[in-house]
Amino acid sequence: MVNFQTLSVSPRSLDRDCTTLSRHVLGQFNSFSAEAQDLSALMNRIALAGKLISRRLSGAGLMEGVLGFTGETNVQGEHVKKMDIFANEVFISVFRQSGLVCRLASEEMEHPYYIKENCPIGRYTLLYDPIDGSSNVDINLNVGSIFSIRQQQGDDIDEQARDLLQDGHQQLAAGYILYGPATVLVYSLGKGVHSFTLDPSLGEFILTQENITIPSKGKVYSTNEGNFWQWNEQMRDYVRYVHLNNGYTARYGGALVGDFHRILLQGGVFLYPGTVQKPEGKLRLLYESAPLAFLAEQAGGRASDGDREILDIIPQQLHQRSPLILGSSEEVKLVESFLQAK
Ligand code: P6P
User: Fold this and answer.
1) Ligand 1 proximity of 224 Cβ (cutoff 6 Å)
2) Is 173 a pocket residue for ligand 1 (Cβ < 6 Å)?
C-alpha cells in the first residue's frame, strides 16, 4: 500500500543534471564552431516558439480569440484555425529576431516568407508545420509543431524556392514539439534522436532521453480506417492482415506528431497512404514527412511512401504531398511487402 504522505515527488529537473537544449546541441558538436553556435541558437529559437505556443494552448479555453476557425482556407484548401495563424506568426517573429534564418516555408503560407536582412548566403531556411493536428485544438487533445532546418543556398528569392526542392538527406536538423500533458521537444542533428521536457518553473527544456531507438517491431498500427474503401486493394489486404493477427492494436489520435511520438518510444507503424482518388496522399513532404523520416531513420526506424524511402524523394514543388509509412523498420517493411504485391 503506497503511503502518499511520504511519497515525495521532487521536480524532476532537480534530480537530473539539468542538461538544457542549448548545452546539448553544443555537446553534439563537441566544439564551439560557427555551425555549432548557429544550430544551438536556432534550436533555442525553436524552443522559444514552443514555449510561446504551449503557453497559448494551455490558456486557450480562458481567453477570447484563441479557439475556433478564422473563416479562411489555406493553400492546402483546409479551414484555418486561429491557433494555426497564431503559431505561424510566432515562428516568423521568433526567427526574424534570430538573425540566422533567411526564409521560412510553412504549411500556412503559399510562398516562403523572406527575412531579407538575414539573407547573406550560407544562412538557414526553416520549414515548419506550426500546428500539426489543429483539429484537436478545440477539444484539448494533443497537437504538435514540426520543423526542419536546411542550409540557405544561393540568393534564390523567387517564390518557387527551387533550392528547397531537394531530398530529405539535406536536412541539417529536424524535430517536433508535442503539446500534451507535458510539452516535449524531440530533435536530431543527424547524431541520434533526443527528447526534452519543458520545466515551466525553469522555462527550460530539460533533457529527458538521449539516443532514442525505435523497436524494430511493434504492435501498434496507426491509420484512419475511415478511408478503408478509398485505399487500393493492397492496403486493404494489409489492414485485413493486422485485423486477423491478434498481436496488433489500433491507436490513432488525428495528429501525426502524437501518433509518431508513441511509435518512436514504443514501436509500431503509422500509415497515411494515398487513396485511389489522391494517390499522393495527404501529408506534406518537406515539413511533415521528411522531418519525421529524418528522426525515424536516426532512431533505427524506417520511412517510405510505399515504394521509395521518404528521404530520397526530391519534391517538385514546395507543398508536395506524399504517402507516408513510418515507424519500426520491420513493420514498415511488412507494409511495403503488401503495397508492392501485384
Ligand atoms: P485525417 C492533421 O490535419 C494531419 O495533417 C496529421 O496531423 C494527421 O495525422 C492527419 O492530418 C489526419 O488526417 O484525414 O485522418 O483526419
Assistant:
1) yes
2) no
pLDDT in tens, 259-284: 999 999 999 999 999 998 999 999 99
Binding site membership of 141 for ligand 1 (Cβ less than 6 Å): no
- Ligand 1 atom having least distance to the Cα of 129: 5
- Is 255 found in the same domain as 282? yes
Q: Are residues 199 and 229 in the same domain?
A: no
255 lines ligand 1 (CB under 6 A): yes
Instruction: Tell whether 226 and 126 lie within a shared domain.
Output: no
For ligand 1, atom 9, the nearest C-alpha belongs to 256
pLDDT in tens, 38-48: 999 999 999 99
- Cα distance between residue 309 and residue 304, in whole Å: 4
Q: Please give the Cα distance from 74 to 14 (Å, whole number).
A: 43
Q: Are 136 and 254 in contact (CB under 8 A)?
A: yes
Centre of ligand 1 from the C-alpha of residue 223, in Å:
9
Distance 255 CA to ligand 1 centre (A): 6
Q: Give the per-residue pLDDT at 2.
A: 60
Q: What is the mean pLDDT of residues 322-342?
A: 97
Same domain, 316 and 267: yes
Average pLDDT over residues 171-176: 98
Q: What total number of domains does the chain contain?
A: 2
**CATH number for the domain that contains residue 55:** 3.30.540.10
Mean pLDDT on 224-230: 97
* Residue at which a domain ends, from 178, 209, 240: 209
Is residue 259 situated within a structural domain?
yes
Model pLDDT for residues 105-124, shown as the tens digit of each residue: 999 999 999 888 888 766 89
Strands 269-272 and 324-327: antiparallel
Q: How far is it, in rounded angstroms, from Cα 152 to Cα 135? A: 32
> Does 202 share its domain with 237?
no
Ligand 1, residue 283: give the atom nearest the CA: 5
Give the residue numbers spanning the domain of 298: 220-339
Among protein residues, the one with the nearest Cα to ligand 1's atom 12 is 254
Q: What percent of the chain has pLDDT over 90?
A: 74
Domain annotation covers residue 6 = no
User: How does DSSP assign 106-118, residue by residue?
Assistant: ETT-SSPEE-GGG
